[in-house]
């Protein structure tokens, strides 16, 4: 079994990347076809009006970040639907009895979670998980920012061939 092979990016950062040692299965980041960032996204027809508004607003933001691709449209639609359910459930909880319901039974009073509270919790989980994949959480944005900083630092390390020839680097 042995160790897993190192990605070419890691080899490049360590300075040990050679053409003869590059992975044949790895390809560069796909920037064509369905993986190319889109410039316009249309909400699916099955989304409700509230979810469409969320989809459009979020899609515009992701397009400006050049993150959204054709493959991401269904996932973004699921995010928008979950976010709309979250808002609806919160409004239902706020106008109703709250998170818990008391029901009188033969043995006394039974306390259970309001159905809208369950929907709220489940929708919040989906929004958090899917939103993090798009960089919509502070932690995921921090990871992207640190990756960008590493790329800038790597680019700064590239030396000018003429300087090397002259012995200045």
Q: What do you see in this structure?
A:
The chain has 169 residues and is mainly alpha-helical. It has helices spanning 8-14, 49-64, 73-95, 115-133, 138-157, 161-166; strands at residues 100-105, 108-113. The protein has a two-stranded antiparallel ribbon with strand order 1-2. Strand 1 (100-105) and strand 2 (108-113) form a beta hairpin. The protein is elongated, with a radius of gyration of 25 Å. The two termini are 42 Å apart.
Distance between the termini: 42 Å
Average of per-residue pLDDT values: 82
- Structural class per helix/strand content? mainly alpha
Q: Any idea what the radius of gyration is? A: 25 Å
Envelope shape: elongated
Q: Helix fraction?
A: 40-55%
Q: Which series of helices and strands comes N to C?
A: HHHEEHHH
> What is the number of strand segments?
2
Number of H- or I-type helical stretches: 6
Name the beta content range: 5-15%
Strand order of the biggest β-sheet: 1-2
Low-confidence parts: none
Features:
mainly alpha; 169 residues; single chain; elongated; 2 strands; two-stranded antiparallel ribbon; 7% strand
Summarize the structure in short.
The protein has about 170 residues and is mainly α. The chain has helices at about 10-15, 50-65, 75-95, 115-135, 140-155, 160-165; strands at about 100-105, 110-115.
Please describe the topology of this protein.
Elements: H1 8-14, H2 49-64, H3 73-95, E1 100-105, E2 108-113, H4 115-133, H5 138-157, H6 161-166
Antiparallel strand pairs: 1-2
Helix pairs in contact: 2-3, 3-4
């Amino acid at each position: 079994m042995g160790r897993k092979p190192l990605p070419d990016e890691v080899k490049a950062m360590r300075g040990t990347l050679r053409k003869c040692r590059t992975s044949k299965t790895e390809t560069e980041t796909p920037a064509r076809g369905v993986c190319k960032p889109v410039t316009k996204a249309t909400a699916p027809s099955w989304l409700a009006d509230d979810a469409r508004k969320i989809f459009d607003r979020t899609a515009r933001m992701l397009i400006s970040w050049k993150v959204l691709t054709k493959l991401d449209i269904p996932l973004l639609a699921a995010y928008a639907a979950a976010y709309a359910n979250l808002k609806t459930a919160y409004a239902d909880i706020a106008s109703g009895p709250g998170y818990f319901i008391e029901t009188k039974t033969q043995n006394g009073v039974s306390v259970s979670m309001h159905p809208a509270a369950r929907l709220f919790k489940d929708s919040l989980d989906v929004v958090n998980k899917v939103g993090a994949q798009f960089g919509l959480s502070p932690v995921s944005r921090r990871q992207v920012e640190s990756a960008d900083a590493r790329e800038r630092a790597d680019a700064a390390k590239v030396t000018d061939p003429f300087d090397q020839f002259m012995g200045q680097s």
